[in-house]
Amino acid sequence: MVELLIVRNPDDGSRLQYLMRLPQPGGDLLFRTSDTWPRVKALYCHPVGLDEWPDDPEIVERIPLRSCQRRGASIDVIAQRGRENRSQVVFTTARGRDAVFWQSPRTRKQARPNVRTPTARAQGLEQLHILVDTHERYAYRFATQQSITVPKPLPCGDYGLEVDGALVASVERKSLADLVTSLTTGRLRYQVADLAALPRAAIVVEDRYSQLFKLDRVRPAVVADGLAELQVRWHSVPIVFCETRPLAEEWTYRFLAAAHAWAVTEAAALQRISPVRIDVAVQAPTNGPSTADVRAWARSAGLPVPDRGRLRPEVWQAWRDAHPE
Prior knowledge:
single chain, 325 residues, alpha+beta, Rossmann fold, 3 domains, 8-stranded antiparallel β-barrel, 6-stranded mixed beta sheet, 9 helices, 14 strands, 28% helix, 28% strand
């Protein structure tokens, strides 16, 4: 029987952790790849020689095939099973170089959702500095957005935003497979708890919510119930499904830009990210000026202040320095 073999890549330093051996009449083809099937997105495949096939392979999947025929620039792979039975290995070019991608009908459709992401600046910002966790693999580049990425270790999340040296917002990126794995192993619960400690945080999923109910390795109801329980327990951390990776990247950019606008204008946000909790009674004693008086003075002095709410500690200190009596 003709089989498609997926084994563990013995090279621990490779970012492509699997080897895929594809049977062909003229000789088998061997590729490095990042997953065992293109379930969420098209998988990049790096062709290598058969001499890289390990002597004692750790077989991850052995997929019987009904057909594996080359048609022009692609190889049609039809597995002998009910679900996830059709895929293509496509030989193409990317950025002027030869490339090979492994795709399924669903990932091919998702790659072209017939939408165009906007190019307008989010919240009117000329450039948004986005922190990218140094442990994030295949990170967003935000190439089409007005932003600058800065690699930095983050305590939680994959993409973050700092204001005055404090992390005020973070986004955790998940593929559908990673979401399901982290949920069933319990790791997602700790990740959400860490995110909930920030003023603003979210989880973005690179797939549709409807794909949860097409899972075949875990009961869909278990995943749906688990996500609902997380949203009830940590309601301040939304879980957003964004259909495709480009749309998830766009949503992350817009979310962090909105968090930036919130953090620099809202008095409650400024109070929350301040390292010292400020008591209103200390800032505005009964025999001193009112908040409205200090707000009016600060505006006349050219200091940025919110229209309502508490004033920052440095605004009160500036008023005291200008009125030593």
